[in-house]
Amino acid sequence: MTDLRLSTHGVDLDGTLRVLAMLPGDPTLRLSPGRLERATHTPDGPGTITAHWDNEADTVDVRTDGPGAEWLMSHAQELLGLADDDAANFEPTEGALRQLWRHHRGLRVPRTSTLWHDLCWLIVQQRIQRMDAARQWRQLVQSHGSAAPGGSELLLPPSKDRLAAIPSHEFHQLGIERRRADTLRRAARTTIDLHQLVDRPPLEATDLLETIPGIGPWTTSTLSVVTWGQPDSVIVGDGGIPSLVSWMLTKQRTSTDQQMLAVLEPFRPHRYRVVQLAFASGQRPPRRRPHPRRASIERY
Length: 300
Known about the structure:
CATH superfamily of the largest domain: DNA-3-methyladenine glycosylase AlkA, N-terminal domain
Shape: globular
Number of helices: 15
CATH class of the largest domain: Alpha Beta
């Protein structure tokens, strides 16, 4: 077990770490106001990181446990958005965006560096609704994960070896169809050293990951944000993000990836920071009014 106290330097840890809690009820992570717990695999073995922060004191206390404790501590500042991510030259002048940044200047982009964990987590989310993904991820971890170090109630995600050995019928019982199950197994059996890949430039690394069948731009662009903590990355292939961003910037209710990328272009090298603010705004484009249901002719 190792402990460390850090200055938060005004970083909004509650908002910064929200991207890691995309799936409600994630058994590998707990995020609540002022507290983060995360269990994961590291190059040195499994580990758990716990962080408590006090916004008034501008400090965060970090504890790590398990064989991966030292590795997790050495990457704690990156995970918390306290290292590498420099927002000093991000000063939007557009009205709504400028106001949002005034209220959320403490947002940063965290970097996990836990590629296997993140990759497994994202493959489960491919092409399905968030709540279905949350349920399937929870069941996968509960069925095939293991206890986290340090006495935490969290669970570790399945290791590569464990996941590679899961038979098809067990994936089916979890609601994970053959396509995603095969992608998970291919990722688990890849000869690519995922721990070393994290140290490569993100574009080079994600290009290599896309050679694994079933891993495409949505997965790799999300990894670029979450695993590599890239403030200029843009998640593409997502059903909701383009319209969310375009609504905030142009009041256009629907949008494509291409349209989103066009309106984000002036914000390089901070395009993901703009996406972060779109989520922080809480504003969603209004839905179209549904067409009235037609009565079945069988009633007449």
